[in-house]
């Protein structure tokens, strides 16, 4: 029974259905979003807290620990990391795939609310949280520049006008204004003048709070009208604050200006930004984990004209870093590869079919299959990204294969005298089971990817579903639209019945010569089938050997590193560096970068780490390179050569510690401010961490493969430890609360009051003047008023001693941790780097309580390696089960699967020849080959079984005829698949480094499998038949013996 016969007999209706599919696919293509890679639903949340003046240890103990206790109870949490430095703590949580970010936001807010009772009361604002994406790379950076306005005014405009407008755009997770801080009235105390007047910093703080208030005063009414009462209770300018009366001493007023310098400035001096060499305020925009990066950036760009209208004419707002533009360029390159693949496939088919008619009928399956795939992608919320487009490029070979097989079978029947419609019906009936077998076995290859909940399977799921959808639709098209068109349009003339041209005659002679050569080789292999049966085992052994050699020589990386023309650089300095000196070093680092001929633009941030936290001894550079090429205005250098050249330039400046990393489309949260990779030493005993972290760091620096090696303990904060004589303090009626408050008011950059303006609020910051904090002795000269009202200098109850403390305190899953940061040589693979680190840590003989923990690239690589083995085995088992069900046989699926080792050996030979490392893309290629090469065996086995069953041929004659008849379509379909993959293997355009390993492996696997499986499949088919005959003979012999024995016993 032919299910597709009604569609074949009604070509007009079938054609209209095909047209509807094409139009639906075109509309879906227009609606599809664009992204670099599939969206990974990897929920992440960050809780951020500021307590100005607190050191890292205080933040870790009083803020991080209470928050972690409550946040750690949220269901579905995978990892939790906190980082505490001077004045701020961030707690970062990663959750398992599948968790709703909206629900997690509610859970996080509930945990914050529950922890408030345990947190310090002097927080300027409550803890705030935001959703984040693990890549840690902004989707867009904007700069605000002005020739007339200072940075603090630019910051106010950016924070009050632009920040809220962008935050409302769907897909935006966080908007952070960088390069300045909110305006503030700074009150810088003269501690000597204070003491001379008999005043303390506490007195000034209380005066500021009492004198600057904004509260309702009520209303007046005379019965006819009502009036609002307004008082001048708020202060706004430094002059107004300077005239405040702090106290009256000996009948003389003491005003604030007598004991302090009051100025207009910023909340702190650590924030600055530059675009190239111009001072700017930058806006860093991060997307939500589930949002589409390109759509988010496009929405922000669309909002820019409206935002420009809100700003003074002198202010320029300009996009300065946009990864999505590179994404679009890379996808255009893949689309070009798609078009080239279509052209190459069409050329191969035209050469083999030698007529335009059959070629066009076969090629119709390409746009229809792609259209169907677009509809499926749109309905599932997928995007046009590198992996989905690569899937479409590769599926061209699949979708044309089905049409080729169908057309070739129809033409064969027409050449034997059948009318076109009858030939189409008979041909589809003969070949239908084969097409279904090929399609179902391909689905089985990718079925294991539908299960699993990790980054590996999530990355490949969109690829596999897209490819599977295209192949399933192509099977339906090949069994309906293709024969319908053949039955109506194909004639013997269009199929090749007319007198061929000289070129066609030459092709026919070559075809016949190749066919005779194959026939002789086939007869030899069938005669030596006992020898050929070992070929799959030999090739399987060779595959494992070649895979080992490839990994040994070239290594194993999670993803190939692409050159998309962007670099991220991090400038690091000692923890206690002054803001002025840090700004000079950041500008010096940017100047060296701009001097390189490959660099186009550099955006520099001072005082902000990659996560957006405030770090005074760090600066970050986002570097945009010139386009790659040989024309004027382009760069001929590769990314790794540019980074090597820049590293040499920075090495000549000892005071600059710069870490450079290339930015790619896949950026995991492994990236830090000190290196592209890191790992952690984790322990419940913090005392063990510092010496062992420094020891492991020292050992890693001895290996040339690692660069920029550092740890959290390399940089320490210098601190003055104030030791209070509690007995003396008690005698003088001082308690620790009074002492802490006095120190905080004098040295803690305390935000003591709020100034309200029409559109924003800013702080009054209380601190000691810079000249009064130059020496540690200023601490002891601080006066505290005792409970009796007497003035007591701290020197009377305390002494100070210098010490050092880590500038960061790291917690991982509520245990103390120390991070070790590093970069690796571009030619040194990730798996070897991880193995070397493990060896270093093992040689260091760490105490039993210290564990090593990996994340980011190393963790993804380990998941890929372990999951790849399971995935391969699962795919082969699934395919065996499907084939066994289809053929109702245990032996025929093994004959079909015997083709796989040849493909694996060919893939690894090609990778070895081109020095291609193992990676996720190479694994995708191996999966593709599993689906492609078994098609050759299915075509032969199906034909042989039909010939045996319907035409009474013996197995040797049946498989021989199958191999000879199917030789031409098998060769054609293999060349078509190679033609589809060839543009990927050649590699061109942005992001080609990611696609190239896939194309190389597929071309190599197809080439070797085509040469070998055409001979091995018939031989193994016959060997299985011989084995079956021998088994039947043995069973018959045993049955005869049992019958003879029974007859003898009965006689």
Automatic annotation (TrEMBL):
GO annotation, cellular component aspect: plasma membrane
Transmembrane spans: 336-353, 360-381, 387-411, 431-451, 463-486, 537-559, 868-887, 920-946, 967-990, 1002-1025
Keyword DNA repair annotated: no
GO MF entries: xenobiotic transmembrane transporter activity
Keyword set, alphabetical order: Cell inner membrane, Cell membrane, Membrane, Transmembrane, Transmembrane helix, Transport
InterPro entries: AcrB_DN_DC_subdom, Acrflvin-R
Key word Membrane present: yes
PANTHER family the UniProt entry points to: MULTIDRUG RESISTANCE PROTEIN MDTC, PTHR32063
Entry protein name: AcrB/AcrD/AcrF family protein
